[in-house]
Structure formats: structure tokens, C-alpha cells
Write a structure and sequence with these properties.
With about 450 residues, the chain is α/β, with parallel strands linked by helices. The chain has 3 domains: about 5-70 and about 105-180 and about 280-360, 3-Layer(bba) Sandwich (FAD/NAD(P)-binding domain), CATH 3.50.50.60; about 180-280; about 370-450, no CATH class. It is about 40% helix and about 25% strand. The protein is built from 14 helices and 19 strands. The protein has helices spanning about 10-20, 55-60, 65-70, 105-115, 165-170, 245-255, 270-275, 310-330, 335-365, 370-385, 390-395, 405-420, 425-430, 435-450, and strands spanning about 5, 25-30, 50, 75, 75-80, 85-90, 100-105, 120-125, 125-135, 140-145, 150, 155-160, 175-190, 205-210, 215-220, 225-235, 280-285, 290, 295. Strand 15 (about 215-220) and strand 16 (about 225-235) form a beta hairpin. Helix 1 (about 10-20) runs parallel beside helix 4 (about 105-115) and helix 1 runs parallel beside helix 8 (about 310-330). It is globular and about 70 Å long. The protein binds flavin-adenine dinucleotide.
Length: about 450
């Protein structure tokens, strides 16, 4: 029986542990932090994530979908807050689909609890992977007391996140390609607490966005009535985290840009200085495996900026794709990791690019009337011709189309919509049959080139 090592007991590591245990393997999970279920980390600040169809598919394969749905709040629409505090709405899906706000800590906790139901999974906390001996197939650890240790593996899944130690070792392997790029914007989490009766202060079926061109704030609801807000903002410059050095400056900035949020955030200035400023980066690398022994998954393989809400979903989809390949191979391991990497790494690169593009869309274009009109036209066309058009956002969020194919579809759609929007009468005709016919014509033209 093969010994499976997993580095990282985060979201992807815990899910992959369940997937491998279900296949009957002996699975050891090594995590550098203490057990988050005992360390009180879940009781701290709520940090939430948007979970969508790709993530749910993997959770369903692992048999935990229902448990996660119980802690997930559906968000059907974007709710945009303009400078005056006026609200406008934009549905996420064409058929009332939702993305789901879940607490990162609780999600991780449920996955770990589920994993521990399997007698063939063991968790080992406070074990920091420092290196991997690829030739002898051993993981090198530093324990909490500073002692060093080696543990043998037959197959190793590196799920140790964006700053992966296993990936650092792979960077020394010939023909491993690596690219890392920081955004000049960072982020800070803030909180909108619940009303005294535990209800939400804003609509809780929306993802709230304050789009402001060069920067934005978003808020996702939590089960306890609070919202976690995230301010995405330049790190340096005239208007930046670096320039907001006093409580007065923070409050004046919020008065100017997010005035309607101030009454909702009584601890704003305190939170602003108490909470750390996070950095955002993109990692693209390939191949994702060494020989047929070590495989990168999740952020270790593809760290992406959070603007498509797909980082975790993409990591969970890695587990699905591995499972499907394993089934195709009828449990035969030869070339499995090589095939996984060959088949899937381009999707990691594609979601990285899509996520960067979506930052512009969220912070800038969601406030642009022409952009909103495009969305309305696309949605109408999709409803009339469901087999012919699925808007890019839906393709990424509500379908299982490989990300790489979604990029190609999105390019084609953009070209068509750019042309449709050149019609000077489009604001009057957008809803008319003539516009739908024009899209059909352009679509056929595109297909004849394909
Ligand atoms: C602000 C923000 C918002 C986001 N929002 C969303 C969203 O809405 N939707 C979405 O899908 N994704 C979102 N993401 C992305 C998502 O958080 C990640 O894609 C996801 O957490 C990746 O899971 P992972 O298991 O690969 O890595 P991680 O969650 O980072 O887990 C890695 C684990 O490995 C452990 N580890 C690290 N190094 C070592 C080592 N040397 N030895 C042993 N253990 C180690 C870590 O302690 C950790 O437990 C967001 C990210 C950010 C920053």
C-alpha cells in the first residue's frame, strides 16, 4: 500500500486527504501550525470566502457538500454602493445562481473533522516542512522544539499554500518554470458588526461592492449577522495604505469615499490600525510535478489574486481533476501526476489571468453604465439562446468548463460585444430582437472562422 504524504492541512490539503483516504491509502498530513480547532483561531476575526460550483463539486465527491452548505450564505447579486450611498444591483447568474459566503476557519474545521473520521488519515501539527529530499523520497521537518526529522513518502501532495516550501525545492529542479508577481495593491480586513438582535445591517443575500476606480471595498455576510469587509487599496502613493497614517486621515478618507459605510463600522479606525495589511501575488509555474512522485496543488501550484473568488475553488477543482484522472487510470499510478500536470497546469495560468482582469472589472467597470448594459444584453441573449452563450463570469463561476477554455470563450464574446456596443442606438435597442439577431450573426461569423 502506498504511503501518501500531504504537506499543509489548509483547505486543499484537508480535502485531498479525504479524497485519498476514500481510495484506501494511508495518509499523513503535516501542518506547520497548531491544530486550528484547539488553538482558538476560529473564534477570532471572521474571514470569509466565496464558494461556488467548482468547489461544491469537489466537496460533493468527498462527501462533505451538505455539511458545508449548512454554513454557507447564498449571495445572488452584486450590490454596488456609489459615492452618495445609492445602491444598484446586478445578478451574478442568468438563472438566479448564487455564490456562497463561508467562513474559512469553519470550512477548514469541518474538513479536518471529516478527515479524522477515516482511520487511515493522521494529522501531525507543529511540523514545518523545510525541504524535500526528492531522490530518497523524504520530507524534512523542523518540529516545535527545534528538533529535525525526516519522514518517508511514496507519493507527496504539496498543499502548503502560496509560499510553498516544496515548490521552493522544485525551483532547483531543471526545467521547472516559475513566475511570481506582486500586485502594487494590498488589502485590509474590516468588520461591519451585527445589529444588537443578531441581524445583518445590510442585505445579506448580496456581495457588497464600493467600486472607486483605482481601489474598492467589498463586504461578504457572515452567519452571525456581521460582514467581513475587505479594502483593496494601493500600498504606496498619495492615496494608499502608506499615506493613511492617523485615525483622522482614515476617517476623512472614508468620509470622502465610503461615507455610507461609516455608521455601520463603529470600530473602523481601531480595526484599520489593528488589522494587518495583506499582500497579493500571482504564482504561475510548470510542471506541477517532479517525476511521478511529488505534485503541487492549490495555491502552491497557482496562487491567484482574489478578484474572481476562485482561488480556493480552483484548488478544490485540482482535487476533482486528480480524482477523475485516477478513476480513468483505474487506480494505476504510472504517469498519473505527469498527466495531471500536463492536462491541468494551463488552467492554473488561465485563472491567474482571469483574476487579474477581474480586478479592473470589479473596482472600475461595475460602476460604468455601458458595462452594466453589456451584462444585461448578454443575459437576455443567454436566456433566449441558452446553448449558444454563457457569459464569462457564469462560465468561470457556475460551470465546470476548464478555465483555459473559458478564456477563449470570453475573448470571442468580448469581440462580439465590442462590436454590438458600437451601435450608436444601442441604449434604445438593447432589448430588441434586432440586437439579438445581430449577436447571432456575429456568433455565426466567429464560428465560421473557428
Ligand atoms: C483576501 C483574500 C480573499 C480570498 N477570497 C477568496 C474567495 O472568495 N474565494 C476563493 O475561492 N478563494 C479566495 N481566496 C483564495 C483562497 O484563500 C486560497 O486559494 C486558498 O486558501 C488556498 O488553499 P490552500 O489549501 O492551497 O492554501 P492555504 O489555505 O494557504 O493552506 C496552506 C496550509 O499549508 C500550511 N503550510 C504552509 N507552509 C508549510 C510548511 N512549510 N510546512 C507545513 N505546513 C505548511 C499552512 O499553515 C496552511 O495551513 C482569497 C484569498 C485572499 C488572500
Amino acid at each position: 500500500m502506498k504511503k501518501i504524504g500531504i504537506v499543509g492541512a489548509g483547505l486543499v490539503g484537508s480535502l485531498q486527504a479525504i479524497m485519498m483516504a476514500k481510495k484506501g491509502y494511508e495518509v499523513q498530513v503535516f501542518e506547520r501550525r497548531p491544530d486550528l480547532r484547539k488553538a482558538g483561531e476560529i473564534g477570532g476575526r471572521s474571514i470569509n470566502l466565496a464558494l461556488s460550483d467548482r468547489g461544491f463539486k469537489a466537496l460533493s465527491l468527498a462527501g462533505v457538500e451538505q455539511k458545508i452548505r449548512e454554513i454557507a450564505l447564498p449571495m445572488y447579486r452584486r450590490c454596488m454602493h456609489d459615492l452618495e450611498g445609492n445602491l444598484s444591483y446586478q445578478p451574478y447568474g442568468v438563472n438566479n445562481e448564487a455564490i456562497y459566503s463561508v467562513s474559512r476557519g469553519r470550512l477548514n474545521q469541518i474538513l479536518m473533522n471529516e478527515a479524522e473520521h477515516y482511520p487511515n488519515i493522521s494529522y501531525h501539527f507543529n511540523k514545518t516542512t523545510t525541504d524535500v529530499d526528492l531522490r530518497n523520497k523524504e520530507i524534512l521537518f523542523k518540529n516545535e522544539d527545534g528538533s529535525r526529522e525526516r519522514v518517508a513518502y511514496d507519493k507527496l501532495f504539496a498543499c502548503d499554500g502560496a509560499y510553498s516550501a516544496v515548490r521552493s525545492r522544485m525551483q532547483k529542479v531543471p526545467q521547472f518554470n516559475y513566475n511570481q508577481q506582486y500586485l502594487t495593491h494590498g488589502y485590509k480586513e474590516l468588520e461591519i458588526p451585527a445589529n444588537p438582535d443578531g441581524t445583518h445591517q445590510m442585505a445579506n443575500d448580496c456581495l457588497h461592492i464600493w467600486p472607486r476606480g483605482e481601489f474598492m471595498m467589498i463586504a461578504l455576510p457572515n452567519l452571525d449577522g456581521s460582514f467581513t469587509c475587505t479594502l483593496f487599496f494601493p500600498l504606496e502613493g498619495e492615496m494608499s495604505f502608506a499615506s493613511l497614517t492617523t485615525e483622522e486621515k482614515v476617517m476623512a478618507f472614508f468620509e470622502r469615499t465610503f461615507a455610507d459605510s461609516i455608521p455601520l463600522m463603529p470600530e473602523l479606525a481601531k480595526d484599520f490600525f489593528d488589522n494587518p495589511t495583506g499582500h497579493l501575488m500571482t504564482v504561475k509555474c510548470s510542471p506541477w510535478q517532479v517525476e511521478d512522485d511529488v505534485l503541487l496543488m492549490g495555491d502552491a501550484a497557482h496562487a491567484v489574486v482574489p478578484f474572481y473568488g476562485q482561488g480556493m475553488n480552483a484548488g478544490f477543482e485540482d482535487c476533482t481533476v486528480f480524482h477523475e484522472l485516477y478513476e480513468e487510470n483505474k487506480g494505476e499510478w504510472t504517469n498519473l501526476m505527469v498527466d495531471f500536470s500536463d492536462r491541468h497546469y494551463k488552467n492554473g495560468h488561465a485563472i491567474a489571468d482571469l483574476a487579474l482582469d477581474n480586478y479592473i472589472e470589479m473596482r472600475d467597470k461595475t460602476a460604468d453604465p455601458d458595462f452594466l448594459l453589456r451584462k444585461k444584453i448578454e443575459n437576455k441573449f443567454t436566456r433566449l439562446h441558452p446553448g449558444k452563450w454563457l457569459p464569462l463570469y457564469s462560465c468561470v463561476t457556475f460551470s465546470h468548463t476548464p478555465y483555459n477554455e473559458a478564456v477563449t470563450i470570453g475573448r470571442k464574446q468580448k469581440k462580439i460585444m465590442d462590436e454590438v456596443m458600437t451601435n450608436p442606438q444601442i441604449h434604445d435597442l438593447w432589448d430588441e430582437e434586432v440586437t439579438m439577431q445581430e449577436i447571432l450573426r456575429l456568433l455565426e461569423k466567429e464560428q465560421s472562422y473557428a
